[in-house]
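YM 10:42: dTDP-glucose 4,6-dehydratase sequence, as discussed on the call
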Amino acid sequence: MRILVTGGAGFIGSALVRQLVLREGAAVLVVDKLTYAGDRRSLRDCEGRPGFAFLEADIADGERMATAMREFRPDAVMHLAAESHVDRSIAGAAPFIHTNVVGTFALLEAARGHWLDLDPAARAAFRFLHISTDEVFGSLGPEGAFTETTPYDPRSPYSASKAASDHLVRAWHETYGLPTLVTNCSNNYGPFHFPEKLIPLVILNALEGKPLPVYGDGANVRDWLFVEDHVSALIAVLRRGRPGGTYNVGGRSERRNLAVVETVCDLLDRLAPDGQGSRRRLITFVTDRPGHDRRYAIDPSLIEGELGWRAAETFESGIEKTVRWYLDNEWWWRPLREQKYAGERLGLLAGK
Ligand code: NAD
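YM 10:58: structure's back
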């Protein structure tokens, strides 16, 4: 299969590309703008492999996307390119509208042009898989879980821009017949996760004896999924999902943020003791994020029942793999972390 993957230098995209190139034998063209969140080093095991190609480009550049489709002739597009960090969207929403909304539109149009050029058999087999988030559904009370029919209720600039992109993708199916698929997934964690996100930030701060920031009272609940389980779900949806369909993806692993941070502390105390007692001493509560959704939880019954997919990792097994990966792969995170702190000193981050 020939698959065009947008955002393939990011956290989830690079895990997907490693799986497709190294284990599934697919031909992959990665299209990525290499923003602060994209890093070609995450794809170093794929570089030079037969079938792997990389195009540095902005998905909102419709002409370049049309050329990429014409030259690569994909059987499928897997669309992961996005601005993805909620705090950054609060500080400045413009890049989120550009990439998530305008970029998705430009990519849909390029994909539609390519799809119309295919012969009937290839046209029927073509798929456009749009990767989205459970944050489009808003916040839950203490009970219940998001299903595929939960009404949209986005509450941050990030989730609003992702909701807009989901609607565009569904409209391209309903209006033009493009064989689209949408997945809405819960919070991912795992190797190659950018160091500003909660779990890597906690691992790396704890290793360096720095404060571990927890928003509000730490009681916000997220439903965690190991990134390789997300990748196996995406491949299942691509192969067997119903065109026009939506699938919620989650690991049935709800945890309070404070419990996540405590688990990481305890794992590091076991795997890399610092001789100064429990790292829980570093936990620091900070002012809550505006509009911070209280609880997200995914009901993955549809993808489990219809496609036979199930998360392979529990939160406990996945988080231990993740902590061990950060301990073993300083070559990857150290330069990113130093850049980040250099940026903070210069007042370049968080909209300052
Ligand atoms: P990420 O921020 O790690 O990676 C995004 C990638 O997109 C980067 O490589 C970046 O360079 C690229 N990119 C950004 N703007 C671009 C543009 N205009 N043109 C081309 N490339 C561009 O994100 P991620 O965490 O890997 O998330 C991937 C997708 O999955 C996103 O669509 C996100 O909304 C969705 N998602 C993420 C999570 C999560 O927990 N991380 C959960 C559910 C859904």
